[in-house]
Structure formats: C-alpha cells, structure tokens
Amino acid sequence: MAAPSPAGAASAAASPSPPMQLPSPFAELVKGPAGLEKIVLRGARNCCAEIYLYGGQVTSWKNDNGEELLFLSSKAIFKPPKAIRGGIPVCFPQFGTHGNLEQHGFARNRFWTIDNNPPPLPVNPAIKAFVDLILKPSEEDLKIWPHSFEFRLRVALGPSGDLSLTSRIRNTNTDGRPFSYMFAYHTYFSVSDISEVRVEGLETMDYLDNLKAKERFTEQGDAIVFESEVDKVYLAAPSKIAIIDHEKKRTFVVTKEGLPDAVVWNPWDKKAKAMQDFGDAEYKSMLCVEPAAVERPITLKPGEEWKGRLVLSAVPSSYCSGQLDPLKVLQG
C-alpha cells in the first residue's frame, strides 16, 4: 500500500487516489466539501456514518431516526493541513501539548488510504457496514517523528446502530528501536445544552487538570456537571462511561478497550470565541469525552502491535425522580 502524501500544506492539497473497490456493499466513496473524499456507511434503517480519508476521521454518526449524534462545528475548515473541527479526530502519536510535536500529533491531518486487504480482525458477522483504512509515515513524517509504523483503523456500524472504531498500530522499525506514543479518540458528542448534561462513571477518579498546569486532583462529585471550561485527563478510568443528556432524554454509553484514560473537555465561551473554526456559542451544544492513553505512553518493540477500541451507543434515558440509574447503563 502506498504511503500517504507528505505533510506540507501544498503536498496535502490533493488526496491520493484510493482503490475504487470498497470491501462492504454498505460503504460508498463520495466527495465532501472542497473535494475531500469520504466513505458513507449505511446501516440498518436510517443509521449511517461518514469517514473522511483526510485524517481517517469520522465526522457524522446518525441513529435510526436520522438524528446526528456527533458534533461538527458549523465553521469547520475542510482544507488541509487544518484538522476538521468535530466528529472523532484521531490523536497520534501525541495528545495535546504533552510532547514536542504539533498539538494532538499528525494522524488527524494526513491522508489515509483504503486498506482492501487488512490482517484478519475478529468481527461480528452481523456487522455489514464497515471500512478499513491505513496510515503509514511519509518521508516528511519520518523527519519529525523518526519511526516506521502501520496504523490500521476499522470503522463499523453495528446492527443496532452502535459505532465502533478499532485501531491497530504496529512498530515496523527495521533498526531494532522501540517507540512510544500517546493516543486518543477525540470524540465530540452533540448535546442539547451543556448545562443539562452530566457524565457518570468517573466519580472518585484521579485526574490531571490541563487548566492548572497538569496538576493531579481527585474527582469529588457524584457526577461531572458543567458550569465553566473543563479540560481534564481522568486516569485509570473504567471501561464504560455514561453521558446523560437530560433534555434529549438520551444517554451515550462510551465503551473502551486498551485505553486506560479518559479526557473530558469543553472550551466554554472565552476559548470558543478565540477559535477560528468554532462558533462563539457552539460550546453549549458539544462535549468531548475521549478514551485515551496519556499518562503512560504506549511502547511497542519492533514487530509488536497494539489494539485500542471505542464503541459508542446511544440509548433512551429512563428517569426515576428525575435521575437516570447509572448502574443500569454502566453495568447493564
């Protein structure tokens, strides 16, 4: 498989020509804004998802009622080398400013290619709508991060409308060197109003507060609610986290594997106004909850492969005295 385009804005201006064949009859390759190519996955009823080859990035996930479940900014810029604001950007090999590379690493602003012959991956035979993508380093990438790798990403829609992302990263260095990296699925959820949302499953967890020089604290509340800017990395987070949207009577269930941490982020008003590709008031209708590996980077020896998985589902919230029973969501 050919390596992705070089990193620079000029070289990234046009996507490489991907193979025309898609492995699933429920996947279609179409043109998006600015001519960027995207894959549309069509599941049962009206469930669908959209994935751009630029960034290997999911930008849309709709339920069987056709409702959008992910947030995508109305001011998102679909022009390389700018990352797309919203959906599920992939942060690799760095998260945020925890390193010497550009913020969140380079995977989210490189062109990926369709992988028509990926190594076997155990799958549910009921899953029909999926696509496999691959990213390899260009010569320019090797200058800023001198490690050879293969990053494979499978995006799939389950029969009940669940969205899953499975990442496999292999160290293909031929000089015997291991490498270490951070990772996050930078998931932007669409919510009714951030003040009506609570996150459950992270109670009593330790976290690093990025607004306080990455200082370590312990979560005190019985749930996370939002009244101001939040940028926290929860450590050793559980495999399931619930995002409860009271106004929409909807709960997102975030299930993660191979990713010990969870980032919770909302920029609030001041930071929203300072971002060129983000509407001034859009912070009210989004929340990022991101399965991640931040505190302890993942290390791979040559030939070793890591797998990290994210599964998203959206279920109706059931109320009892105005509250959702989190045990039914997190353990059921």
TrEMBL record:
One GO CC term, this protein: cytoplasm
Top-rank lineage group of the source organism: Eukaryota
Keywords assigned: Isomerase
Active site: H186, E290
Binding site for substrate: R85, Q103, R108
Enzyme class: isomerase
Catalytic activity of the protein: alpha-D-glucose 6-phosphate = beta-D-glucose 6-phosphate
GO biological process, alphabetically ordered: carbohydrate metabolic process
Keyword Transport listed: no
Classification via SUPFAM superfamilies: Galactose mutarotase-like (SSF74650)
One MF annotation (Gene Ontology) recorded for this entry: carbohydrate binding
InterPro entries: Aldose_1/G6P_1-epimerase, G6P_1-epimerase, Gal_mutarotase_sf_dom, GH-type_carb-bd
EC numbers on record: 5.1.3.15
Iron listed as a keyword: no
PANTHER family with a match to the protein in the record: APOSPORY-ASSOCIATED PROTEIN C-RELATED, GLUCOSE-6-PHOSPHATE 1-EPIMERASE
UniProt family annotation: Belongs to the glucose-6-phosphate 1-epimerase family.
Protein name stated in the entry: glucose-6-phosphate 1-epimerase
